[in-house]
Write a structure and sequence with these properties.
Layout lengths: L12 H10 L2 E6 L13 H17 L2 E2 L6 E2 L3 H10 L9 E2 L1 H17 L4 E6 L9 H9 L5 E6 L20 H10 L30 H27 L9 H12 L33
Parallel strand pairs: 1-2, 1-5, 3-4, 5-6
């Protein structure tokens, strides 16, 4: 039986209209190409978010936008972390400063609102200090758009299902590896996992990857899919209970950014510099200091 196509970029207009009529929900997956150990594809974050969103839309309805692989890194605490966990290896990053990523997100919200979606689920597989900032931006935008908004950042797994009680293993640990293995098996190769401490820290690899489990990952992905389904249903109910608003223009978004969001930037977690940063000879030093702009 052929799969129902839910990927926006692969659908023709009548398919999009039919999917919209069935369930006017849109998934917006975000991520980053960055080090995730020598055993995982560098696009892990967006791959997980996109593939899991596709599963949710296939099972319960909705449309999935193309994954956005440009995300926040290098500045402030991100740069300090990368100096310690990646070092001078070529990182293969697709990084943006935080203000550019967050402003782009505002335009993504405007676009799906203009199309008439009732709910938008923003799923960022890439986490960091911005996990505190994205909800603040969405709270501002929510006051100006009809589409109801929900965001999830990180693995999105509501519980660790590993039976040994050791947890998910942190960044690029067994939790992320297990989830990626479940949805994109060609993007995980455990034979590449280092067997000793030579050249540590192993391209930012996390803990317990030797106990990664694809079958367990499928159970965990099912958890996430059902969570997304429940949130989507709540968004539709919230939309139906409100009066619609006028669609925003590009100029409207610029005004909202300049008057409501930009003044908040100095307080955003992703804009903080709370340490002395990488040493002067580190490749991570150049963008560590956060400029006063945006």
């Amino acid at each position: 039986m052929p799969r129902t196509e839910v990927r926006w970029e692969r659908m023709v207009p009548d398919e999009l209209e039919a999917a919209f009529d069935r369930r006017p929900i849109v998934y917006l997956p975000y991520g980053l190409c960055e080090p995730h150990g020598p055993l995982n594809a560098v696009g892990m974050d967006a791959l997980r978010a996109h593939s899991t969103s596709v599963l949710a839309a296939e099972r319960h309805g909705g449309i999935v936008t193309p994954a956005n692989y440009w995300h926040i890194h290098e500045q402030g605490g991100y740069g300090t972390w990368a100096h310690k966990r990646v070092g001078d290896a070529r990182p293969w990053l697709t990084a943006l400063p935080s203000w550019m990523f967050l402003k782009n997100m505002c335009y993504h919200i405007r676009a799906v609102d203009a199309l008439g979606f009732k709910g938008a689920l923003l799923f960022s597989g890439h986490s960091g200090p911005h996990r505190l900032d994205v909800p603040r931006v969405l709270n501002v935008m929510q006051e100006h758009v009809s589409v109801r908004l929900f965001s999830v950042i990180g693995t999105a797994e509501p519980q660790s299902r590993f039976p040994d009680g050791k947890g998910m293993g942190g960044h690029a640990g067994r939790g992320e590896t297990t989830l990626l293995w479940a949805v994109e098996p060609d993007c995980v190769d455990l034979s590449r996992m280092p067997t000793d401490d030579a050249d540590a820290p192993h391209f930012a690899m996390g803990d317990y990857n030797e106990t990664s489990d694809r079958r367990l990952g499928e159970v965990m992905v099912d958890d996430i899919v059902e969570m997304l389904h429940e949130e989507a249903s709540a968004l539709i109910a919230a939309y139906d209970a409100r009066d619609p608003r006028t669609t925003l223009t590009y100029e409207d978004v610029e005004v909202i950014w300049d008057s409501e969001i930009r003044p908040m930037l100095p307080d955003f977690a992703s804009m903080q510099v709370n340490d002395d940063g990488p040493p002067a000879d580190s490749r991570w030093r150049a963008n560590w200091a956060v400029p006063a702009r945006g």
